[in-house]
């Protein structure tokens, strides 16, 4: 006799691919794959930053010290994210899909399990990618890159009027990048990227170059890649972020005891239930090496 009201029977697809599915929920997405990954992030986590400046001196006897190494810290504050969903397969009875439903004792199988889980993962990734940039830091959202940079007084801000062309806007962002940024890229939303490409075509500055990747293109006359990311799509704001990708951090717990991706059949509720739990957050190391461009 058990006091547990939920009797679990994990279905085949999730059981076989649980680690892979959890990894996709936490780490999939263009931006998260490009950011600096931090693991073992279970609460506010310190980024220990070292910045060294070397100063040459004239060769002479004795010891004439010059140059400096500065240590500083920034805190990545994650949020514990959870997704709880249910699916009642009996609702398919009487529909074209009823042949997929198995209701006999001991035959609880979720119809379209892989497709249903895949659609949930797509939605999770879309929302986490958006949170990566625009998360408010309150409720079930960790604080995103745009609010973080907006609140930093030493970050570089570029404002453009709403009628400014995408090409002119992105050029202004590129001009503002500090020289000390070693390998800058400019992240833009997919709609802004498409507008940018049309501006280049109109100005006869576009030609096919295999060195340019999918949804990325070098700003003409520079070595700076303009990269489209869906996470920056925003109906109310047009944003471009210039930074070295090594300056952007994404943290996750990566702990099997805390992170879960479970699918089971609840006999008491006569439905399938899905639970996804993981911890995630983002932060920047050097705000003064980031340009936030806003066209409004």
Write up what this structure looks like.
Helix content is 24%, strand content 29%. It contains 6 helices and 13 strands. The protein has helices at 12-27, 30-34, 113-134, 145-150, 166-175, 190-202; strands at residues 36-38, 45-53, 68-76, 79-87, 156-160, 184-188, 216-218, 225-228, 238-244, 248-252, 260-266, 271-284, 291-295. Strand 7 and strand 8 (225-228) form a beta hairpin. The radius of gyration is 24 Å and the shape is globular.
Strand neighbour order, sheet with most strands: 5-13-9-6-8-7
Q: What oligomeric state best describes the polypeptide chains here?
A: single chain
Number of helices: 6
What is the tally of beta strands?
A: 13
Residues in β-strands, percent: 25-35%
Binned, the helix content reads 10-25%
Outline: globular
The main pleated sheet reads as: 6 strands, mixed
Instruction: Kindly report how far apart the N and C termini lie.
Output: 64 Å
**Mean pLDDT across residues:** 82
Rg over CA atoms: 24 Å
Q: Which blocks of ≥5 consecutive residues have pLDDT under 50?
A: 1-10, 92-108
Keywords:
296 residues; alpha+beta; 6-stranded mixed beta sheet; 5-stranded mixed beta sheet; 6 helices
Q: What is the secondary structure topology, with strand pairs?
A:
Layout: H1 12-27, H2 30-34, E1 36-38, E2 45-53, E3 68-76, E4 79-87, H3 113-134, H4 145-150, E5 156-160, H5 166-175, E6 184-188, H6 190-202, E7 216-218, E8 225-228, E9 238-244, E10 248-252, E11 260-266, E12 271-284, E13 291-295
Parallel strand pairs: 1-10, 5-13, 6-8
Antiparallel strand pairs: 2-3, 4-12, 6-9, 7-8, 9-13, 10-12, 11-12
């Amino acid at each position: 006799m058990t006091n547990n009201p939920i009797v679990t029977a994990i279905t085949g697809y999730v059981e076989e691919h649980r680690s892979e599915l959890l990894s996709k929920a936490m780490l999939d997405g263009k931006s998260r794959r490009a950011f600096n990954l931090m693991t073992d992030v279970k609460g506010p986590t310190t980024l220990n930053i070292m910045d060294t400046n070397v100063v040459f001196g004239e060769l002479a006897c004795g010891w004439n010290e010059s140059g400096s190494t500065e240590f500083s810290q920034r805190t990545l504050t994650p949020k514990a994210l959870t997704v709880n969903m249910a699916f009642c397969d009996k609702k398919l009875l009487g529909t074209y899909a009823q042949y997929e439903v198995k209701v006999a004792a001991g035959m609880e199988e979720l119809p379209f399990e892989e497709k249903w889980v895949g659609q949930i993962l797509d939605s999770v990734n879309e929302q986490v990618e958006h949170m990566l940039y625009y998360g408010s830091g309150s409720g079930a959202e960790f604080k995103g890159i745009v609010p973080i940079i907006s609140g930093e007084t030493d970050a570089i801000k570029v404002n453009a009027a709403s009628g400014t062309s995408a090409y002119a806007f992105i050029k202004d962002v590129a001009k503002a990048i500090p020289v000390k940024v070693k390998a800058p890229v400019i992240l833009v939303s997919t709609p802004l990227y498409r507008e940018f490409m049309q501006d280049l075509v109109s100005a006869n500055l576009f030609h096919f170059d295999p060195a340019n990747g999918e949804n990325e293109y070098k700003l003409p006359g520079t070595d700076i890649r303009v990269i489209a990311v869906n996470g920056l799509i925003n109906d109310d704001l047009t944003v471009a972020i210039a930074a070295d990708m090594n300056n952007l951090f994404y943290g996750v717990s990566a702990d099997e005891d805390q992170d879960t991706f479970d699918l089971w059949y609840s006999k008491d509720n006569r439905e399938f239930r899905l639970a996804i739990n993981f911890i995630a957050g983002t932060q920047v190391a050097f705000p003064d090496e980031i340009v936030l461009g806003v066209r409004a």
